[in-house]
Design brief:
α3 packs parallel to α5. The protein is globular. It has 434 residues and is mainly α. Among the domains are: 163 residues, Leucine-rich Repeat Variant (Alpha Horseshoe), CATH 1.25.10; 77 residues, no CATH class; 56 residues, no CATH class. The protein is built from 18 helices and 4 strands. A hairpin with a 5-residue loop joins β1 and β2.
């Protein structure tokens, strides 16, 4: 049978004239191709950017056409192609609200994700778990999301508890399990079951001997961190009687994790402790912790840590976090943070809210601001009310031109340079006094 004469149809000639396979979408090309169609939706003000008007309907149709192609490619024989398709769908789901598009294809997407989680290797499985999180974020806390979780929940629990699976795969599934359960479940039994699954993982990081001075990090430490953070997220939606039980069970054990070699484990344990103290004081205004003096000594040491054998970046990050944790435990204080998105502002004024915000920011990335503006589920979680509807004229009056931004940045740069120059010129010599 004669060979096809079409160039680039299935093969492309490589070095030495030998044919080689070409994947339909590489990791980089797939993400870039999707983002080129999605980035314009990440900020509503982008529609009023200086330049020619964009045909929104045509752009939306073009985006949906590409997304249909990516969904089909999640069933491809090539693992690399499947993974690239999953990553491209993740980029799209994190940067635009696609509720109606997903609603029509939720069963197909769920089946594809389940297949990739069951059959895929570590990297593909991680991409599929990440897509499952975004799928539930898009769908919100409705019946459809519950159906998705009923399908994926048992598969995720099985992998999380499977000691033979890769640590990265188990870590991704633990995070996915916590987030999806947080979003969709109204069944208290399912909530407790999921928390017990996560508890069985991170409690392995507790030292067996209570007199042990330190906890050594292991390859499974990243899994323990993810399981602890996912469990903490679910604790924020538990009934108060269950919260009391969990506090009694874990509050005296968690401080042992503060001595772990891994900085991320120390930080995760510290933030969890701050959240537990916050919840404990909400349930009981006269809450008393017996080992408060010993705990505050540990926290103060971490907030002022100057060990030379630790990386400067790790020490800086650790000191910043534990200053806040120490204030929370000692003074019942929380440093309020302000999150700006479009014309709105959100104040993070407690550890529960911070934990929830950090979790969703981790999975949505740069799309977090857009979802805070437009995603009904997230707005409900953070009590922001219905989305603020602004017409194009209002958006245009709020957005400054490129030229005005340039003038402002130039003036700020000059002022900063002058201020720094004065400091450099007038540095005082520091002498030794005896």
């Amino acid at each position: 049978m004669p060979k096809s004469k079409k160039r680039g149809s299935n093969h492309q000639r490589g070095a030495g004239g030998q044919p080689r396979n070409v994947q339909p979408f590489s990791d980089e090309d797939a993400s870039i191709e999707t983002m080129s169609h999605c980035s314009g939706f990440s900020d509503p003000a982008s529609f009023t950017e200086d330049g020619p008007e964009v045909d929104e309907e045509a752009t939306q149709e073009d985006l949906e056409y590409k997304l249909k192609g990516f969904i089909d490619l999640t069933l491809d024989k090539s693992a690399k192609t499947r993974q690239a398709a999953l990553e491209s769908l993740k980029s799209a789901f994190s940067s635009k609200i696609l509720y109606e598009f997903i609603m029509e294809r939720r069963m197909t997407l769920t089946d594809s994700i389940e297949r990739c989680i069951k059959k895929g290797k570590s990297e593909e499985l991680c991409a599929a778990a990440g897509l499952a999180c975004l799928l539930c974020v898009q769908m919100g806390s409705g019946i459809e999301s519950e159906e998705i979780f009923k399908t994926l929940g048992p598969v995720l629990k099985k992998i999380v508890s499977d000691g033979t699976a890769s640590v990265q795969a188990r870590q991704a599934c633990a995070t996915c399990l916590g987030i999806c359960c947080f979003i969709v479940t109204d069944d208290i039994t399912e909530l407790y079951s999921t928390m017990e699954c996560l508890e069985s993982i991170f409690t392995k990081a507790y030292p067996r001997d209570r007199d042990t001075n330190g906890v050594s990090s292991t390859p499974s430490t990243v899994l323990h961190i993810s399981a602890l953070l996912a469990w903490t997220l679910l604790l924020t939606i538990c009934p108060m009687n269950e919260v009391k039980k969990k506090i009694e069970m874990h509050l005296h054990k968690l401080p042992s994790m503060l001595s772990c070699d891994d900085v991320n484990m120390r930080i995760a344990a510290g933030e969890t402790l701050a959240l537990l103290f916050e919840l404990a004081r909400e349930t009981d205004a006269d809450f008393f912790y017996e080992d408060m003096e010993l705990l505050t000594e540990k926290l103060r040491a971490l907030a002022t840590d100057g060990n030379k054998h630790r990386a400067k970046v790790d020490k800086r990050k650790q000191r910043s976090v534990f200053r806040d944790v120490l204030r929370a435990v000692e003074e019942r204080d929380f440093p309020t943070e302000t999150v700006k998105f479009g014309p709105e502002r959100m104040y993070i004024d407690c550890w529960v809210k911070k934990q929830t915000y950090d979790t969703f920011k981790e999975i949505l990335g740069s799309g977090m601001q857009y979802h805070l503006q437009s995603n009904d589920f997230l707005r409900n979680v953070f009590e922001l009310g219905p989305p603020v509807m602004l017409d194009a004229a209002t958006l245009k009056t709020m957005k400054i031109s490129r030229f005005e931004r340039h003038l402002y940045n130039s003036a700020a740069f000059k002022a900063r340079t002058k201020a720094r120059s004065k400091c450099r010129d007038k540095r005082a010599d520091v002498g030794e006094f005896f």
